[in-house]
Amino acid sequence: MTQTSISPIRTPAAARPSAPEAKATPPVRLRRPTGDDGATIWTLARDSGKLDLNSPYAYMMMGHFFPETCVLAEMDNEPVGSVIGFAPPARPNALFVWQVAVSEQARGQGLASRMIEHLLWTAPLKGQARWLEASVTPSNEPSERLFRAIARRHGAPCEVAPLFEEDAFPSPEEADATFEAERLFRIGPLRQAQAA
Fold it and tell me: In the Enzyme Commission scheme, what number(s) does this protein have (predicted)?
Protein backbone atom coordinates (compact mmCIF):
# COMPACT_ATOMS: atom_id res chain seq x y z
CA MET A 1 0.00 0.00 0.00
CA THR A 2 1.47 3.35 -0.94
CA GLN A 3 0.77 6.50 0.93
CA THR A 4 0.02 9.58 -1.13
CA SER A 5 1.13 12.90 0.20
CA ILE A 6 -1.07 15.86 -0.60
CA SER A 7 0.41 19.30 -0.28
CA PRO A 8 -2.09 22.00 0.57
CA ILE A 9 -2.23 24.99 -1.72
CA ARG A 10 -0.98 27.95 0.21
CA THR A 11 -2.18 31.44 -0.52
CA PRO A 12 0.03 34.32 0.55
CA ALA A 13 -1.44 35.98 3.60
CA ALA A 14 -1.95 39.27 1.77
CA ALA A 15 -4.02 37.56 -0.93
CA ARG A 16 -6.27 35.66 1.45
CA PRO A 17 -9.68 37.23 2.05
CA SER A 18 -10.12 38.04 5.68
CA ALA A 19 -13.09 36.48 7.44
CA PRO A 20 -15.55 38.93 8.90
CA GLU A 21 -14.98 39.38 12.59
CA ALA A 22 -17.54 37.39 14.49
CA LYS A 23 -18.99 39.28 17.39
CA ALA A 24 -18.62 37.04 20.40
CA THR A 25 -21.77 36.79 22.48
CA PRO A 26 -21.00 36.92 26.19
CA PRO A 27 -22.19 33.89 28.15
CA VAL A 28 -25.57 34.12 29.84
CA ARG A 29 -25.79 33.37 33.54
CA LEU A 30 -29.10 32.12 34.94
CA ARG A 31 -29.81 32.64 38.63
CA ARG A 32 -32.66 32.75 41.11
CA PRO A 33 -33.98 36.23 41.76
CA THR A 34 -34.53 37.73 45.19
CA GLY A 35 -37.04 40.31 46.35
CA ASP A 36 -34.36 42.93 45.66
CA ASP A 37 -34.53 42.00 41.94
CA GLY A 38 -38.21 43.02 41.71
CA ALA A 39 -37.43 46.45 40.23
CA THR A 40 -35.12 44.84 37.66
CA ILE A 41 -37.77 42.32 36.60
CA TRP A 42 -40.37 45.11 36.45
CA THR A 43 -38.04 47.09 34.15
CA LEU A 44 -37.52 44.07 31.86
CA ALA A 45 -41.31 43.61 31.65
CA ARG A 46 -41.86 47.32 30.98
CA ASP A 47 -39.16 47.54 28.33
CA SER A 48 -40.49 44.49 26.49
CA GLY A 49 -43.37 46.66 25.30
CA LYS A 50 -45.51 43.53 25.04
CA LEU A 51 -46.32 42.45 28.59
CA ASP A 52 -49.01 43.58 31.01
CA LEU A 53 -47.06 45.61 33.50
CA ASN A 54 -47.82 44.66 37.09
CA SER A 55 -46.85 46.68 40.15
CA PRO A 56 -43.18 46.56 41.18
CA TYR A 57 -44.40 45.03 44.43
CA ALA A 58 -45.79 42.01 42.55
CA TYR A 59 -42.36 41.32 41.03
CA MET A 60 -40.69 41.78 44.44
CA MET A 61 -43.12 39.26 45.94
CA MET A 62 -42.38 36.72 43.20
CA GLY A 63 -38.62 37.04 43.74
CA HIS A 64 -39.01 36.85 47.51
CA PHE A 65 -41.57 34.05 47.86
CA PHE A 66 -41.12 32.04 44.64
CA PRO A 67 -37.40 32.28 43.72
CA GLU A 68 -37.20 28.57 42.88
CA THR A 69 -39.74 28.92 40.05
CA CYS A 70 -38.40 32.22 38.73
CA VAL A 71 -35.17 32.98 36.92
CA LEU A 72 -33.15 36.07 36.05
CA ALA A 73 -30.74 35.95 33.08
CA GLU A 74 -27.66 38.15 33.06
CA MET A 75 -25.09 38.88 30.38
CA ASP A 76 -21.96 40.76 31.50
CA ASN A 77 -23.75 41.28 34.84
CA GLU A 78 -26.57 43.12 33.04
CA PRO A 79 -30.13 41.73 33.25
CA VAL A 80 -31.31 40.49 29.84
CA GLY A 81 -34.26 38.23 30.65
CA SER A 82 -36.57 36.83 33.27
CA VAL A 83 -39.26 34.24 33.77
CA ILE A 84 -41.64 34.43 36.68
CA GLY A 85 -43.74 31.43 37.53
CA PHE A 86 -44.94 29.12 40.26
CA ALA A 87 -45.95 25.54 40.95
CA PRO A 88 -49.75 25.60 41.42
CA PRO A 89 -50.54 24.16 44.88
CA ALA A 90 -53.18 21.81 43.45
CA ARG A 91 -50.74 20.59 40.74
CA PRO A 92 -47.26 20.46 42.31
CA ASN A 93 -45.87 18.59 39.30
CA ALA A 94 -46.62 21.56 37.02
CA LEU A 95 -44.81 24.81 36.31
CA PHE A 96 -47.09 27.75 35.53
CA VAL A 97 -45.24 30.49 33.65
CA TRP A 98 -46.74 33.90 34.36
CA GLN A 99 -44.44 36.19 32.38
CA VAL A 100 -41.40 35.85 30.13
CA ALA A 101 -39.33 38.93 29.30
CA VAL A 102 -36.22 39.12 27.10
CA SER A 103 -34.38 42.38 26.44
CA GLU A 104 -34.00 43.53 22.86
CA GLN A 105 -30.25 42.86 22.89
CA ALA A 106 -30.77 39.19 23.82
CA ARG A 107 -33.66 38.35 21.48
CA GLY A 108 -33.31 35.72 18.77
CA GLN A 109 -30.90 33.56 20.81
CA GLY A 110 -33.39 31.11 22.31
CA LEU A 111 -33.10 32.67 25.76
CA ALA A 112 -36.81 32.47 26.61
CA SER A 113 -36.87 28.75 25.91
CA ARG A 114 -33.61 28.20 27.78
CA MET A 115 -34.93 29.95 30.90
CA ILE A 116 -38.14 27.90 30.91
CA GLU A 117 -36.25 24.62 30.41
CA HIS A 118 -33.92 25.62 33.25
CA LEU A 119 -36.88 26.03 35.60
CA LEU A 120 -38.44 22.72 34.59
CA TRP A 121 -35.39 20.72 35.56
CA THR A 122 -34.15 22.53 38.67
CA ALA A 123 -35.53 22.92 42.21
CA PRO A 124 -38.23 22.61 43.38
CA LEU A 125 -39.43 20.55 40.42
CA LYS A 126 -36.05 18.79 40.01
CA GLY A 127 -36.94 17.26 36.69
CA GLN A 128 -40.22 15.92 38.02
CA ALA A 129 -42.36 18.50 36.22
CA ARG A 130 -44.85 16.68 34.04
CA TRP A 131 -46.75 19.75 32.84
CA LEU A 132 -45.89 23.23 31.65
CA GLU A 133 -48.71 25.76 31.79
CA ALA A 134 -49.03 29.38 30.74
CA SER A 135 -51.73 31.86 29.87
CA VAL A 136 -51.42 33.56 26.49
CA THR A 137 -53.61 36.22 24.88
CA PRO A 138 -54.79 35.58 21.31
CA SER A 139 -52.64 38.44 19.95
CA ASN A 140 -49.41 37.26 21.61
CA GLU A 141 -48.06 35.26 18.68
CA PRO A 142 -44.42 35.16 19.93
CA SER A 143 -45.52 33.48 23.18
CA GLU A 144 -47.73 31.05 21.33
CA ARG A 145 -44.78 30.11 19.06
CA LEU A 146 -42.52 29.72 22.11
CA PHE A 147 -44.82 27.32 23.95
CA ARG A 148 -45.71 25.31 20.85
CA ALA A 149 -41.98 24.93 20.09
CA ILE A 150 -41.34 23.65 23.62
CA ALA A 151 -44.18 21.15 23.19
CA ARG A 152 -42.68 19.92 19.89
CA ARG A 153 -39.21 19.60 21.44
CA HIS A 154 -40.65 17.43 24.21
CA GLY A 155 -42.90 15.48 21.86
CA ALA A 156 -45.80 16.49 24.09
CA PRO A 157 -49.33 17.62 23.23
CA CYS A 158 -50.17 21.29 23.67
CA GLU A 159 -53.78 21.79 24.72
CA VAL A 160 -55.30 25.26 24.54
CA ALA A 161 -58.45 26.10 26.48
CA PRO A 162 -60.22 29.26 27.69
CA LEU A 163 -58.95 30.52 31.04
CA PHE A 164 -60.29 34.07 31.58
CA GLU A 165 -62.70 35.70 29.14
CA GLU A 166 -62.55 39.44 28.40
CA ASP A 167 -65.65 40.17 30.47
CA ALA A 168 -63.94 38.74 33.58
CA PHE A 169 -61.59 41.75 33.64
CA PRO A 170 -62.50 45.23 34.87
CA SER A 171 -64.28 47.34 32.28
CA PRO A 172 -62.11 49.67 30.17
CA GLU A 173 -63.79 52.63 31.90
CA GLU A 174 -62.88 51.32 35.35
CA ALA A 175 -59.35 50.22 34.54
CA ASP A 176 -58.49 52.87 31.94
CA ALA A 177 -57.22 49.95 29.85
CA THR A 178 -58.54 47.13 27.71
CA PHE A 179 -57.86 43.47 28.32
CA GLU A 180 -57.80 40.45 26.07
CA ALA A 181 -59.02 37.00 26.96
CA GLU A 182 -56.38 34.68 28.40
CA ARG A 183 -56.07 31.16 27.03
CA LEU A 184 -54.49 28.35 29.05
CA PHE A 185 -51.70 26.50 27.25
CA ARG A 186 -51.10 23.12 28.91
CA ILE A 187 -48.14 21.10 27.65
CA GLY A 188 -47.51 17.56 28.76
CA PRO A 189 -46.84 15.05 29.92
CA LEU A 190 -43.20 16.11 29.58
CA ARG A 191 -40.24 13.83 29.13
CA GLN A 192 -37.58 13.89 31.82
CA ALA A 193 -34.55 15.93 30.78
CA GLN A 194 -31.39 17.59 31.98
CA ALA A 195 -31.10 21.19 33.15
CA ALA A 196 -30.42 23.65 30.37
Answer: 2.3.1.178
Beta-sheet pairing, 78-86 with 182-187: unpaired
Mean pLDDT of the chain: 85
In a domain, 23, yes or no: no
Residues 33, 72 contacting (CB under 8 angstroms): yes
The helix (H) or strand (E) run that includes residue 173 is: helix 172-175
Could you tell me if residue 150 is inside a domain? yes
- Per DSSP, the three-state class of 84 is strand
Domain tally for the chain?
1
Half-sphere exposure of residue 123, counting CA atoms within 13 Å on the CB side?
5
User: Does pTM surpass 0.85?
Assistant: no
